[in-house]
Amino acid sequence: MTTYKQILLAFDFSDETDFLIKRASEMAFLNNAKISLVHILDNIPMPDMSYGTIIALNDETDSALLEQQKNKCNEIGKFLNVPETQRWLIWGNPKDEICALATQENIDLIIVGSHARHGLALLLGSTANGVLHHAPCDVLAVRLATK
What is the mean pLDDT of the chain? Predict the structure, then answer.
């Protein structure tokens, strides 16, 4: 069995995020691994930013929604004892940004939530499916409850 040393937890802020955090914490404990966090901002408007798509979690912005996302990410980071330098908010396509960050940070394992997909949603794909097929490392797709 492979021992993982660098785990990237890619999460949204759905109702199942707590379950995903628990799984990532367990994997990190079992492997004595470090966790990094990423949340991809693909559903809120991007303000005019001259410094790129990576959002600093310690800078203030004029966007209340962005501040809310940053606060949630920091709460998860504090709960998991993840250093601020290993927490990211990035604008873009989730699959592309997660895979690029995994390469950049020499990640051994990406943990991402996965909902059961049927019909058109299955054909169109999901973030978990995209990451699974394009990641530079192993991917753990954690089955999340369906509603």
Answer: 81
